[in-house]
Design a protein that fits this description.
Order of helices and strands: EHHEHHHHHHHHHHH
Largest sheet: 2 strands, parallel
Structural class: mainly alpha
Strand content: under 5%
Strand order of the largest sheet: 1-2
Distance between the termini: 41 Å
Length: 225
């Protein structure tokens, strides 16, 4: 798979797609983006950059239509900057759909509007779709890594602990990812919940992720010294 590695390449691809759209309509714009961008291997930050560049010239009234059309291409890069996050996660039914949207949509919302987003995540914890539950951990990972205040991380840790009895492989991966990141950046919070974490009701896989995160915190502290 070809790889795109720079913003210069992104700008050239987006400019060419824009020209196609202006000459032949939005369907040609979508086709150009699919062939020249979404079928390529692109790091998430560059996909974010591409989304911002595209939205500079796509009228607001057409943006949702554009994302709807891109989502059905099922290309790995087509899930960036999607507004219908949960709908698209369920529709995509793949780990990368969940993780890309979980980080860049729900994760960003959690980071920037935690008071509004945390109650939503608590509701999603009871969702029947495994990918939606997985995205709670993914969003937690993103927001904590980016500096979410400890007050909100405390609530999220309790939420993740409550989900530690899951047996689904994909849900465990997402929840474990969030737990590991919390332990790495907020080891004192983990200590506060040591009783709950060591409880027989908390599965071993969850405790293992916590231990990995704590070890990474210690390693980082040594490197700073």
């Amino acid at each position: 798979m070809d790889q795109i590695t720079s913003k210069v390449q992104i700008r050239e691809i987006v400019a060419a797609a824009k020209q196609q759209g202006q000459q032949s309509g939005i369907e040609c714009l979508i086709l150009s983006l699919q062939e020249c961008l979404l079928k390529k291997k692109v790091r998430f930050p560059l996909l974010e950059f591409a989304a911002r560049e595209i939205m500079l010239f796509v009228p607001e009234a057409e943006q949702l239509h554009l994302t709807d059309r891109l989502i059905v291409t099922t290309e790995m890069g087509s899930y960036e900057s999607i507004h219908k996050a949960c709908t698209y996660i369920t529709m995509g039914n793949q780990w990368y759909v969940c993780d890309i949207i979980g980080e860049r949509v729900l994760g960003h919302a959690l980071l920037t509007s935690p008071k509004k987003t945390i109650p939503l995540l608590e509701e999603l914890a009871h969702h029947p779709d495994k990918w939606i539950v997985r995205t709670i951990g993914v969003a937690t990972h993103y927001a904590v890594k980016k500096g979410l205040p400890a007050t909100f991380v405390d609530i999220l840790l309790k939420l993740l602990i409550s989900l530690s009895n899951t047996t689904d492989f994909h849900v465990k991966k997402g929840i474990g990812w969030g737990a590991k990141t919390i332990a790495k950046f907020h080891p004192k919070l983990v200590t506060c919940y040591s009783k709950e974490i060591e409880s027989p009701e908390t599965k071993q896989w969850f405790r293992t992720k916590i231990t990995i995160g704590l070890n990474r915190h210690k390693l980082g502290a040594k490197q700073i010294q």
